[in-house]
Give the backbone structure.
Amino acid sequence: MRATIMHAPGDVRVEERDKPTIQQPTDAIIKLVAACVCGSDLWPYRGADSLNKPAAMGHEYVGIVEEVGTDVRNVQAGQFVVGSFFASDNTCEICRSGYQSGCVHREGVGGAQAEYMRVPLADGTLVTTPEMPDADKIPSLLAASDVLGTGWFGAKAAEAGPGKTVAVVGDGAVGLLAILAAKQMGAERIIAMSRHAARQALAREFGATDIVEERGDDGVAKIKELTNGLGAHSVIEAVGTQESMMQAIRATRAGGHVGYVGVSHDVELPGLEMFFSHVHLHGGPAPVRDYLPELIDLILRGEINPGKVFDLELPLDEAAEGYKAMDERRAIKVLLRP
Ligand SMILES: [Zn+2]
């Protein structure tokens, strides 16, 4: 089968690999219907994450179950499934409290930018759709697998809701879908921080009421200006750098909440400033599995259309071009068809 392998920063190739097989009785093998390139795939692509050996890429997926292990009960061959980037048993105490991405048996899921992939803990990880979804729902269901679920967690962790002013730092797919999530949760005002016209337009479509183009301290000043000098109630951080994290914390009012979902890279928090800020911080890898049933339902009922973040679609064989387009910010998010 064909699979996307990253050999070194900037070096992504689609190569022939062995088709994955069942290794544990709790595994499933799925045939990918669509996959995509994640903003977090750009960290190793840009050399910000080290790569010790060639890596099979991709952790966002929708597909059709091909085969299941002998202990799998909830999914069967032929079903359409959506999963998340961490496999979880969905039964342990941590899973039952809504933190499947912190499952005591959690395991990374990888190699989704391929024709087939192996999903561990299939019963806990995969969610089936009631029937084979229409082709036009595939991009949105794929978005639910990571970027929508992650934006959703960001909004939830930031306690977005009725009466709240929400600010979003980061205009990648996660930031944009955090806007959609905040809107669904009933936020009154949503401020998107973006200086990119196409992304601003999508932000507005997803529910942003205001756009702030300034960054860093200037961005913070602008948010304060828009909120009677107080800062936002809820700020979602969807980048993962020191600058974006401090921008999020400083744009939050005393007593407010930051939901941070950008994968943290060398971020260090100043203790004394945190002490006097009265800001709540919550974040991490999103428990996407917890939200999947609700997100799938919203998508299939046509209430949300998160698939709009995909502004470039390529055949799997052109994955390298997909990485390049996202790296150069020519595309918000790239969908790959195996
Ligand atoms: Zn668990």
Q: What stands out?
A: The first helix runs from residue 42 to 45. The CA atoms of residues 94 and 102 lie 7 Å apart. The domain at 2-146+287-337 is CATH 3.90.180.10 (Quinone Oxidoreductase; Chain A, domain 1).
